[in-house]
């Protein structure tokens, strides 16, 4: 019995050391190399790994997405891990485990591409730089209204899409996404004068 336990420990320690080394290397590479984040993904319909196009838009000389604007900003210089590593210990551990688990599944050949984002960018992360939006608002807008504070149903990234091209006329607000979010609480949001001015909507036009 003692021999069996000792043998198990002897085998487990090197295996654990390998797992820790791989996990550490994984975390380090995701921090220093944005391209590493897409290197293990499978080819998609566009014949590029999942997220490859998003990374190219982000790292382009001229930012082609809101993520790219933040990535190129000298003030923030935000890459993949800064936004996708969580804002507290619980979120960070959850994402770290997700990375380790999927790396293991990838190497044993039992990996499937995720269908959706399981750990979306938290509002807490956005507010660490963009806090106090109501006080900063210079005109009537979503962020200037106290009643909108703390609405869990409408996350920042629900309206401010990070990895999509600029909307027609510039900016990174997708009109349809904004109106869909507003419709969670408001009837016929497209008829709001404030929204018409903010999004450049035409009166009495269906969106």
In short:
The protein has 207 residues and is mainly α. 51% of the residues lie in helices and 0% in strands.
Unreliable sequence segments: none
CA radius of gyration: 22 Å
Instruction: Report strand %.
Output: under 5%
Mean pLDDT: 76
Our count of helices gives 11
The major β-sheet equals: none
Choose one word for the global shape.
Answer: elongated
Give helix % range: 40-55%
Number of strands: 0
Secondary-structure class: mainly alpha
The helix/strand series, from N terminus to C terminus, equals HHHHHHHHHHH
First-to-last CA distance: 72 Å
List the helices and strands and how they pair.
Blueprint: H1 2-32, H2 36-39, H3 52-59, H4 66-72, H5 80-84, H6 89-107, H7 123-130, H8 133-136, H9 156-159, H10 175-182, H11 193-199
What features would you describe in this structure?
Helices cover 51% and strands 0% of the residues. With 207 residues, the protein is mainly α. It has a domain at 123-199. α3 (52-59) packs across α4 (66-72). It is elongated. The termini are far apart.
Keywords:
207 residues
